[in-house]
C-alpha cells in the first residue's frame, strides 16, 4: 500500500505503517521482539496531540528522540482549535505572582522560564503563529479564525511525521505499562475499530487534557452539580490521563474542584468548534446574570472573560443562570468574542439551535417569560431595578453582590428595549486540578515527593499549577510545561542509555 503523510493523520493501521517502512528512526516493529508483542518501540510516547502534546512531541523529536504520539480525536490541536488561541504567559515572576497569587512560586518559575522556549520551538518549526498578547508567548494561527488555527496544527503534524515521528489518529491511550520497580515501560492504546496496540517507550508524556467530559469525575471533584457542567472542550478529554496515572500510583494535585471555562447557552445544539463563536455568551460580563432565585450571585465583571462568574455558576441550582441584557448590549457586544474579534450574532444562533432566549418590551414581561423556566419573577424585576439604580448612584460596589469592571468588562444600564434573557449553564474548558507533578513535569507518586520514573504530565492532565487563575494562560501553561517535560524526558532517556 502506498501511504503518504495524510494517511498517518487519518489513522492508518499500524500494520500498514510498518509495511510502508515509514517508522521513525529508532522505532522497532513487533517482529523483532517475539517474546512480547510491541507494535512500536520508541524513546518517548506522547498521549494527545493538542497544543501541549504537539509541543511535547516536537520538542522530544527535535532533541533526537524517536517519538510515537497517539491522538484520540479525528482532528489535531485539541481544545485550542475552538479557542482564541492565545498561548501566552507571564513575562516575569513579578507578573506571575501578581496574577496567580495562590500558585507555588516554583510552578510559576517553570511557566515563566519555559513559555519563551516553547515559542522558540514554534518558530523553529516555522509554525503559523502570531505574537502573544503583551509580547509573551504566541497566538495560534496566521489569523484569528478556526481554519487558521487548525491549519497551524495540521502543518505541525505533517512536519512531525516528516521528521520521522509516528502520529496515530483516533487512537486512545488507556493504560500505562510499568516494570517490577514501577518505572514506566510504555502504554497501551485503542484504535477506533477496537484494535489494541502496545507501545514500548522509555518515557511517556501525558498530554491528554483533563476530565471535562467525564460526568463521574466532575461530580466527584467539582461537587454535586458537576455532572451538569457542560464540556466546553474537545469531547475526547474524558479523564483517561488522570485515571491511567492513578492506576500506576500517581498522586493527585490540589485544586481538583477548580477549572477555567465560560458559561454556555443552555439546551442549544452546539458542538465542539461552535463553542468560541456561538455557545459562549461572551457579552455576559457586561450584563446581569441571575440564578433561579432571580438574584445576582457573583460580580459579572470579575476575572478575564466572565470566567470567575462561570466558576461560581456551578454553586447555583442546576449550575444554571440567565444572562439579562438590552438592545444596546446586544448591538454593541452580542457578536464580539473574548478575543475582541467580531463573529456570529450569538443570540440569533442560540435561538436557531434550540436554546432558551426570551425577548420582551419590558423587564416585567421578560421576568414573566423567565418564570416559565423556573426563575423567580419578583426577584428578577427587583434585581434589575436595583442594579440600574446603583449605576445611576455610582454605588455598584455597595450592591449586595458588588459589581466592578474587572479586566475587560464595563458596567452598562439595562434600559433600552427590547430586553433579552439567555439561559446559560456552567462550562468547563480546562481543569486546573489533575495529576500531581513537580516543576519538571514529572508525575509524583502517592507520597507526593518521589517521581514515577519515566512518567511526565502537563496541564490540563496535570494540575495544581496556576491555582484557579486563568490569566488567559491555559494553553500557555500547557505548552510551557510540555517543553519542560519533554526536555526532562530527553535527559531521562539519555541517562538510561549511558
Ligand atoms: C471557546 C474557548 C476559548 C478559549 N480561549 C483560550 C485562550 O485564548 N487562551 C487559553 O489559554 N485558553 C483558552 N481556552 C482553553 C484552552 O483551549 C484549553 O484550556 C487548552 O487547549 C488546554 O486544554 P487541555 O489541556 O484540556 O487539552 P487539549 O488541548 O484539549 O488537548 C488534549 C488532547 O488530548 C487528546 N486526548 C484526550 N484523551 C486522550 C487519550 N486517552 N489518548 C490520546 N489522546 C487523548 C484530545 O483529543 C486532545 O487533542 C479556550 C477554550 C475554549 C473552548
TrEMBL record:
This protein's name: FAD-dependent oxidoreductase 2 FAD-binding domain-containing protein
An example molecular function term from Gene Ontology annotations: steroid dehydrogenase activity, acting on the CH-CH group of donors
Bilayer-spanning residue ranges: none
Cofactor(s) the record lists: FAD
Pfam families in UniProt: FAD_binding_2 (PF00890), TAT_signal (PF10518)
Domain FAD-dependent oxidoreductase 2 FAD-binding: 43-95, 167-465
NCBIfam families assigned to the protein according to its UniProt record, in alphabetical order: TAT_signal_seq
Keyword hit for Oxidoreductase: yes
InterPro entries linked to this entry: FAD-dep_OxRdtase_2_FAD-bd, FAD-oxidoreductase_2, FAD/NAD-bd_sf, Succ_DH/fumarate_Rdtase_cat_sf, TAT_signal, TAT_signal_bac_arc
Single biological process term from Gene Ontology: steroid metabolic process
PROSITE patterns: PROKAR_LIPOPROTEIN, TAT
Alphabetically ordered keywords of this record: FAD, Flavoprotein, Oxidoreductase
Amino acid at each position: 500500500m502506498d501511504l503518504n503523510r495524510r494517511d498517518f493523520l487519518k489513522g492508518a493501521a499500524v500494520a500498514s505503517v510498518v509495511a510502508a517502512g515509514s517508522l521513525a528512526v529508532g522505532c522497532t516493529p513487533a517482529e523483532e521482539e517475539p517474546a512480547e508483542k510491541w507494535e512500536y518501540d520508541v524513546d518517548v510516547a506522547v498521549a494527545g496531540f493538542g497544543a501541549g502534546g504537539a509541543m511535547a512531541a516536537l520538542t522530544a523529536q527535535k532533541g533526537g528522540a524517536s517519538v510515537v504520539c497517539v491522538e484520540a480525536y479525528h482532528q489535531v490541536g485539541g481544545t485550542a482549535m475552538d479557542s482564541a488561541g492565545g498561548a501566552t504567559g507571564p513575562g516575569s515572576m513579578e507578573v506571575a505572582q501578581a496574577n496567580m497569587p495562590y500558585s507555588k512560586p516554583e510552578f510559576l518559575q517553570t511557566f515563566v522560564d519555559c513559555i519563551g522556549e516553547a515559542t522558540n520551538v514554534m518558530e523553529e518549526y516555522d509554525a503559523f503563529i502570531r505574537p502573544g498578547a503583551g509580547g509573551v508567548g504566541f497566538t495560534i494561527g496566521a489569523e484569528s479564525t478556526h481554519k487558521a488555527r487548525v491549519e497551524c496544527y495540521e502543518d505541525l503534524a505533517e512536519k512531525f511525521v516528516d521528521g520521522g515521528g509516528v502520529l496515530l489518529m483516533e487512537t486512545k491511550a488507556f493504560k500505562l505499562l510499568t516494570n517490577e520497580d514501577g518505572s514506566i515501560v510504555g502504554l497501551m492504546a485503542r484504535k477506533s475499530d477496537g484494535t489494541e496496540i502496545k507501545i514500548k517507550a522509555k518515557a511517556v508524556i501525558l498530554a491528554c487534557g483533563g476530565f471535562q467530559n467525564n460526568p463521574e469525575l466532575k461530580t466527584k471533584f467539582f461537587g454535586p452539580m458537576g455532572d451538569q457542567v457542560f464540556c466546553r472542550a474537545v469531547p475526547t478529554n474524558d479523564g483517561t490521563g488522570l485515571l491511567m496515572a492513578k492506576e500506576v500510583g500517581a498522586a493527585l494535585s490540589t485544586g481538583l474542584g477548580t477549572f477555567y471555562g465560560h458559561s454556555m447557552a443552555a439546551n442549544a445544539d452546539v458542538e465542539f468548534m461552535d463553542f468560541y463563536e456561538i455557545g459562549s455568551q461572551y457579552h455576559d460580563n457586561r450584563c446581569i446574570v441571575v440564578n433561579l432565585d432571580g438574584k445576582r450571585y457573583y460580580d459579572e465583571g470579575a476575572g478575564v472573560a466572565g470566567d470567575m462568574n462561570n466558576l461560581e455558576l456551578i454553586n447555583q441550582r442546576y449550575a444554571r443562570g440567565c444572562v439579562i441584557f438590552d438592545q444596546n448590549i446586544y448591538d454593541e457586544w452580542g457578536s464580539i468574542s473574548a478575543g475582541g474579534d467580531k463573529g456570529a450574532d450569538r443570540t440569533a444562533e442560540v435561538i436557531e439551535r434550540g436554546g432558551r432566549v426570551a425577548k420582551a418590551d419590558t423587564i416585567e414581561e421578560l421576568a414573566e417569560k423567565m418564570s416559565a423556566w423556573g426563575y423567580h419573577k419578583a426577584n428578577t424585576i427587583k434585581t434589575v431595578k436595583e442594579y440600574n439604580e446603583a449605576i445611576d448612584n455610582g454605588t455598584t460596589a455597595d450592591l449586595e453582590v458588588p459589581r466592578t469592571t474587572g479586566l475587560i468588562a464595563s458596567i452598562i444600564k439595562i434600559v433600552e428595549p427590547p430586553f433579552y434573557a439567555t439561559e446559560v449553564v456552567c462550562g468547563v474548558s480546562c481543569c486546573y486540578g489533575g495529576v500531581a507533578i513537580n516543576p519538571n513535569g514529572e508525575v509524583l507518586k502517592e507520597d507526593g515527593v518521589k517521581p514515577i520514573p519515566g512518567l511526565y504530565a502537563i496541564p490540563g492532565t496535570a494540575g495544581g499549577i496556576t491555582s484557579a487563575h486563568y490569566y488567559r494562560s491555559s494553553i500557555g501553561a500547557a505548552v510551557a510545561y510540555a517543553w519542560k517535560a519533554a526536555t526532562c524526558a530527553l535527559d531521562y532517556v539519555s541517562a538510561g542509555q549511558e
